[in-house]
Amino acid sequence: MIYPIVAYGDNVLRQEAQDFPKDSEELTSLVENMYETMYNANGVGLAAPQIGLSHRIFVIDSTQMGDNNKEGKGVKRAFINPEILDEYGNEWSFEEGCLSIPDVHADIIRPEKLTIHYYDELWNEHEEEFDDLTARVIQHEYDHLDGVLFTDYIKGLKKQMLRSRLVGISKGNVKVGYRMKFPVKK
Questions:
Q1: 115 contacts 86 by C-beta, under 8 angstroms
Q2: What is the pLDDT of residues 62-112, one digit of tens each?
């Protein structure tokens, strides 16, 4: 099932997400649907708040980015109830975008490496280190679980220049090739 992507301005994108319940029977289908939704929108990552669910879960597929980690390819993985334990290494800038904020891109500075603790969709526990583009995708999606958007890192004049575009997105003034859910107008 392909979910509509929640657009900028919806409150769920600003909430701190809750742990996904371990006894839920919906996890496998949710992960499959999140991947389907992400691929349908040509994304490389998708967090549950972006489909309107305030749960600590996200999926990524950095293999599409040509990332070269130790195995020579990116990573396709589901992260359930993740916790970033450490971020380190050189900080570097890379242009980021977001399915919830279409047609907006900005250079964002993040550390190059991280260590994360998480569960996979079979509730196997992991603690792993990631770097480069895979780490960046994880950091971006992880931010969604804490109610943080990549635009929060933009400062000064650039942020002021984006304000009208962000308001436009929240009002549905954007054309994309995937379904979106816009905030309810009051």
A1: yes
A2: 997 764 445 457 899 999 999 999 999 999 999 999 999 999 999 999 999
Instruction: List the structure tokens of 120.
Output: 């996979």
First to last CA, the chain: 29
Phi, psi values for residue 89, rounded to 5°: 90, 180
DSSP annotation of 55 reads B
pTM of the shown model = 0.94
Q: Give per-residue burial for 113-133: e unless 16+ CB within 10 Å, then b.
A: bbebebbebeeeeeeeebbbb
Q: How far apart are CA 177 and CA 170, in angstroms?
A: 17
The answer to whether 67 touches 132, Cβ cutoff 8 Å, is: yes
Q: Under a CB-based contact definition with an 8 Å cutoff, are residues 29 and 122 in contact?
A: no
Catalytic residue chosen out of the listed positions 25, 87, 127, 141? 141
Question: What tokens does 180 get?
Answer: 């979106």
How high is the pLDDT of residue 151? 97
pLDDT tens digit string along 125-156?
Answer: 999 999 999 999 999 999 999 999 999 999 99
91 part of the active site: no
